[in-house]
Amino acid sequence: MNKEERIYEPMSDIVAQGREAVMHTYSQFPVAFVSGHGRTLVDADGKEYLDFVAGIAVNALGYGDESLSAALKRVIDGGLLHCSNLYWNPYAVSAARLLKQASGMDKVFFCNSGAEANEAALKLARKFGHLDGGHRTGIITMEHSFHGRTYGAITATGQDKYHKDFDPLLPRIKYAAFNDFSSVLAQVDDDTCAIMVEPIQGEGGIIPADPEFLRALRTLCDERNLLLMFDEVQCGMGRSGQPFAWQTYGVKPDVMTLAKALAGGVPAGAMVACGIAADILQPGDHAATFGGNLLAMSGACVMLERLLDGGLCDHVRAVSAYFIKALHGLQSKYPAIAVDVRGRGLMLGVQLTVPPRIVVDAAMERGLLVASAGYDVLRFVPPLTVTTAEVDQAMSILDDVFSTLVPDEK
Ligand SMILES: Cc1ncc(COP(=O)(O)O)c(C=O)c1O
Predict the structure, then answer these.
(1) Which among 4, 200, 349, 391 counts the fewest CB atoms within 10 Å?
(2) Substitution candidate for ligand 1 out of 147, 150, 157, 237 with most atoms within 8 A of CB
(3) How many helices (H) and strands (E) does the chain have?
(4) Which pLDDT score is estimated for 230?
């Protein structure tokens, strides 16, 4: 590629210039990615990496997916990327209809990110609490949860480290212990209007909800007239092996939030609601300029069609079974390093006795991208199109990394 065609600098320059110009809100690895194919990413110096991070559960169709690229190009070629929500656009309407079909829920609000979707859900919950002249404002969320970085979303996030130095937070949000129904019961009072929970906690360390816990929450919400709201930003859109993780539990929420993989990599978020919750927000209550824009929604239609034809979810379940078995194999070979394997579908984690960052760095060095979650979990959220051969490749790199950590166990 000659200088004219190249739109980026050599990698060391990108990193150095980034450190000068970009606010230091991330601990970034000194790598810049410029292209991808399949499940492989290419950095600015041409090195290839097998990607088991997928932009943290975003790039569900991998890189260079033909139908996604074609759909996005069609919108670009039409010249209209965005039109105001003063008007309808066919892509948003189709995406909403596909979401209804995939979820059996009733109505959709589109936005641009997970935090934004959760803000919408928190507002909807508060308005629900004001119905019929009421004034219920309390929302219960879970310890170790993660719901995003805006004010409502950090308040809903049950981890002190995200609150530090940002008080005062949103009032009347309380935290219960995840998977501990008695802890939730202890927090419910006459002020409570909603419970928000991730069916599989992601940032908290890949912790699936116990089925009985979600069932008990559903019953409680029905009995006490509370909204049950599932944050499926990370675990939704096929990652669990079903379009939405709650479908693997058979526990349907009143409100579900989505983002990340919703549009296959184009920024998009959604709040989906059913029953009474679907008609609470009225004109003037909520809005997002870019929500439902044509480009993102054309991506969402491709993603949702892939989920609905069943093939993608079948593939996730098959590769997941293979992957989990391989991780158990690694765990039994290195019991001093890997102490637990957990998760569902292609949202998997291995709890480590060593800092995950050591493994993440060593794997990256060897051409494999993996991430951490919580403080001691190695997280795998690859593109949903990942193959068993690529799982083998990742496992052999991790085997090599683990062997350097405890050489005498090999
Ligand atoms: C469960 C969950 N909710 C919300 C968010 C926030 O999403 P966003 O970064 O798009 O605002 C995340 C991001 O990691 C998440 O995992």
Answers:
(1) 4
(2) 147
(3) 13, 17
(4) 99
Atom in ligand 1 nearest the alpha carbon of residue 113 = 10
Contact assessment for residue 305 and residue 98, using Cβ atoms and an 8 Å cutoff: yes
Distance 78 CA to ligand 1 centre (A): 31
What ligand 1 atom has the least distance to the C-alpha of 202? 16
SS3 193: strand
- Contacts with 222 (C-beta within 8 Å, 6 or more apart), sequence order: none
What's residue 365's pLDDT?
98
Q: How far is CA 309 from CA 138, 187, 221, 228, in A?
A: 39, 41, 32, 28
Q: How far apart are CA 163 and CA 181, in angstroms?
A: 25
Residue 391: its pLDDT value, please? 98
Q: What is the pLDDT of residue 2?
A: 52
Pocket test for ligand 1, best of 234, 257, 377 (most atoms within 8 A of CB): 234
Give, using CA atoms, the residue closest to atom 8 of ligand 1. 114
Opening angle at CA 125, ends 158 and 233, nearest 5:
55
Write out the two tokens for 178: 């995840």
Q: How far is the CA of 170 from the centre of ligand 1 (A)?
A: 18
pLDDT at residue 323, rounded to an integer:
98
Per-residue pLDDT, 9: 87
Residue 368, CB-side half-sphere exposure with 13 Å CA sphere: 25
151 alpha carbon, distance to own chain's centre: 19
Domains and CATH numbers, the chain: 3-52+311-403 (3.90.1150.10), 66-308 (3.40.640.10)
| Residue owning tokens 């760095």 | 361
Instruction: Using alpha carbons only, give the angle 177, 181, 187 rounded to the nearest 5 degrees.
Output: 65
Q: Which residue's CA is minimally distant from atom 13 of ligand 1?
A: 148
Q: What is the pLDDT of residue 410?
A: 45
Q: Please list the ranges in the chain whose pLDDT falls under 50.
A: 1, 409-410
Q: Which residues pair with 395 in a beta bridge?
A: none
Show the ligand 1 pocket: residues with CB < 6 angstroms: 113-115, 118, 146-148, 198, 202-203, 231, 233-234, 259
CA within 13 Å, CB half, 141: 27
This prediction's pTM:
0.97
